[in-house]
Specification:
Elements: H1 16-48, H2 52-55, H3 71-76, H4 79-112, H5 118-127, H6 133-146, H7 153-178, H8 181-189, H9 194-205, H10 207-223, H11 226-231, H12 240-243, H13 255-275, H14 277-286
Helix pairs in contact: 1-13, 4-7, 4-10, 7-10, 8-9, 10-14
Length: about 290
């Protein structure tokens, strides 16, 4: 017999220089990415705090020459701005509610029931995401004009709901599909009907996906511009995305108020994201695993 000796591989020691460089470069790269994303908002904030005549002055300065802290009070006391804010809140909230009420039963039924045409139906829902509002705005205007819905909140709400419904259905479909069949069967054995099972069992288990659908729908409706610009002609009914353009026209140049209004407009979305950020991250990661 011959003895066989096995050689054990010894891991190479890490080079301290490479580890130190990585420890230094990773945070530096992260700070660079943060600076790229936060840079425009910092510039907007500084321009909101400088006089309107200094915004376009050359040579420009990074810091305002004369700090002007009354711009935000001026914007918040503007009746037009308050009307635009009310419209944005109404449209975004109502559109999100409609999307959730339609997407939940649609996603639940397609995920838990095998019926003929289920896959083509899901792909048909997905195809609707291929059409941008810009390419459909002329047809939408003509359709709503024939229905006498131009210049109404209902037209914008229905359009936002339609364009965001597919995403909500697909993400909730993934969550409902990931729930084991035994959970639903146990609920039926305990006496729960279809609605009771959906409300008491399934929805709590899909809460991360539901939160993800809510935040994405709300942000999309809040930021929508093209359809609102086309369908809403009454200045008092315009949302923020369209209304704040009135601060800079051919007759008046209130750049400071425009930037202040833009900063205020992003605050509700930032607050909403900060409140449900944990659920949002969990929804994006867990919804892709079955």
């Amino acid at each position: 017999m011959t003895a066989v000796t096995t050689a054990t591989s010894v891991p190479r020691p890490r080079q301290p220089g490479r580890s130190n460089r990585r420890r230094f470069l990773l945070p530096l790269g992260g700070l660079a990415v943060v600076a790229v994303f936060l840079g425009p908002y910092i510039v907007m904030l500084l321009d909101a705090l400088r006089a309107s005549k200094d915004v376009l002055r050359t040579p420009t300065t990074f810091w305002p020459r004369d700090w002007q802290f009354t711009t935000f009070n001026t914007v918040l006391s503007d009746t037009r701005f308050l009307n635009w804010l009310k419209t944005s809140v109404l449209v975004a909230t109502t559109s999100t509610l409609i999307v959730v009420l339609v997407a939940v039963p649609a996603a639940y039924f397609t995920a838990r029931h095998k019926f003929p045409g289920r896959i083509p139906f899901l792909f048909l829902v997905l195809v609707t995401q291929m059409f941008a509002p810009t390419s459909l705005v002329v047809g939408l205007y003509r359709q709503f004009f024939e229905l006498s819905l131009v210049n109404t909140y209902l037209a914008i709400i229905l359009t936002n709901s339609a364009f965001n419904l597919a995403f909500a259905v697909w993400i909730l479909h993934g969550f409902f599909s990931a729930i084991p069949d035994e959970v639903e069967e146990a609920a039926h054995l305990d006496g729960c009907g279809r609605l009771g099972t959906l409300w008491r069992i399934m929805l709590p288990l899909t809460r991360p996906g539901l939160v993800t659908a809510v935040i994405f729908t709300f942000i999309a409706a809040w930021n929508e511009y093209v359809v609102a610009l086309t369908l809403m002609q009454d200045d008092a009914k315009k949302p923020l995305t369209v209304g704040i353009n009135s601060y800079v026209t051919g007759y008046e140049q209130n750049w400071d108020q425009l930037f202040a209004a833009a900063i205020i407009a992003i605050v509700p979305v930032v607050i909403l994201f900060a409140v449900i950020e944990k659920h949002l991250v969990g929804g994006l990661t867990a919804g892709s695993i079955k």
